[in-house]
Structure formats: structure tokens, C-alpha cells
Amino acid sequence: MAAKAQYEELIRQFSAFGAVKRELGRILPSDCPSGSAAVLTLLGRYGDMRMSKLAELLAVDMSVTSRHVAHVAERGWIERSPDPADKRSRIVRLTPEGNRKLDDMSRATTRMLAERLGDWSDEEVAQLTRLMQRLRASFDDCRSPKLSAALEQGGPPSLGPPAPPPVFETTTRTPAST
User: Fold this and answer.
1) What is 28-71 written as a DSSP string?
2) pLDDT tens for residues 164-174?
3) What is the model's pTM?
4) Strand runs labelled E in the chain
5) At 75, is the secondary structure helix, strand, or coil?
6) Lower CB count within 10 Å: N or C terminus of the chain?
7) CA 116: distance to chain centroid?
8) Of residues 38 and 168, which shows the higher confidence score?
9) Burial of 125 by CB count in 10 Å (0-12 exposed, 13-18 middle, 19+ buried)?
């Protein structure tokens, strides 16, 4: 187990990482705030899903999810339709325009990361990615066991196999928190 001083330094680094997230957030289009970007990102990664699954993956309550979904739906980036298995539920999916918006954001984020990490070796970038995935998994353990298991297997449960990962999946594109 790490020493207390190591955890204290880790806390300082988490605070400093806020500057990285803010800079990444600044490159988001003005019509796509971080919550909207998160919705597009999750739909791009996992494919069509129920609103309730989207809320779980966003780790926010349904009212917040509904606001984010309404925002992206108004812009034509997603569509909502009744869930054939439960007419009270809605399924959300990316539209072609939503895919284009997601691709544009991915390219901009990838370009910024390539510029900022240009002096890092491929192994250093891979190591950072592995460590961040491991850190995230440690915190995901606090979520429901069903959701944590689904995330480890690559997607949310209930709508069949996850969509194949998009080409940009190898980037570290993650919109700012909601």
C-alpha cells in the first residue's frame, strides 16, 4: 500500500489535472457542452441504448440525462424512439449528423493530445492509458456490480452485443465531466 505522502501527492495531481480537462473542454464546439459531448461519446462507443443505461453510464440522475439528451436531439445529433420491449422507455441512437459531430470532436481532441504529448514515447502514452483505465476501474467498482461487469465487457447490458469500437477508439478522447 502506498504511503500517506504518495496519496497526498496524488490528490495534488488530480487537482492539477483539472487544467488539462478544462483545456480539452475549451476545444469542444460552442453548441456542444461537455454533457452533450459525453452523450455523443457514449452512444458512439456503445451504440443504441435506453435512457436509463445512458444515465448509469453518465453517472448522473435521469433528469440531468434528459436535459443532455434534449440538447443533442434538438440539434439533430441523436434520435429517440420507443423501446420495443418497453413502450414507456426510450432508445437513443446517434444520427449521421451526430456521428459527424463526434468524429469532428475526436479529430480535434486527438490533434491536441498529439501536440501536447508529442515528446512522449508510444510506450509512455500506452502506460498512461493503462494506468488511467485501471484508476477508473477502481472507482467503477463503487458502481452497481451489473454495470461494472458490463463496462468491463465493453458495453451496457440489455441491448445485445456492443457496437464495434469506432476507429477513433484508440484515442484518449474523453469530454469534460458533466
Assistant:
1) S-TTS-HHHHHHHHHHHHH-SEEHHHHHHHHTS-HHHHHHHHHH
2) 333 333 334 44
3) 0.71
4) 49-50, 78-83, 86-94
5) coil
6) N
7) 21
8) 38
9) middle
